[in-house]
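seq:
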Amino acid sequence: MSHVLTIARRDLGAYLHGYTAYVIIAGILFVQGLLFNTFALGAETARYSHEVLEDFFYIAGGCAMTASVLLTMRSLAEEQATGTDVLLRTSVASDAQVVLGKYLAAMGMMTLLTALTLYMPMLVFVNGKVSVAHLAVGYLGVLGLGSACTAIGVFGSSLFRNQMAAGIFTAIVVVTILTAWQLADITEPPFSSVFEYSAIFRHFMDFREGILRVSSLVYYGSLTSLFLYLATRILEGRRWE
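struct:
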């Protein structure tokens, strides 16, 4: 576990000491704030506070997915491009520990981004009332969604030496499982049930309404574990190249 934390601290330091992560976070916060004020707070008719909060989490979920692609595209791809992946492969840390450390560092930045959005639902307090439970469940859903997409990003980054290629691949995978919900409407059972369950944003809809479902947390945890495992297998395969 110490090797995992060492790699996570190393990557987290790279995020914090560079400017790219700050640009990404600032850009995401700007877009999210703009959408929140336009579509959530800017409605012409009076709305209940929980409706505004649901719109906020809907926007936050989409922004978390976008941020995960941008934050992870350099994760392992940059190591391969600069040749520092050789140092990781010859270190005492296993491939699984390297992948987990990279994932934790990216999730650290994702958590920071999520925490910085807290002022938006707090604005609802000005003219309404916000349930703390709704707020907590919604943010848990955002982090669960972000965790799954971050794991996909780490996997995509393990496949390529080019950061842009890794980002494009991750975006394609995320969009594919995002649109699986629509595929469920045009296919017949049992494929419709498979597509409906695999739709990543479908599991988020209950969270945005303040409904905690353990099955959705299991889904996000399973998806995270699957793609981290695949990334580990990719790194293990490179040892024989």
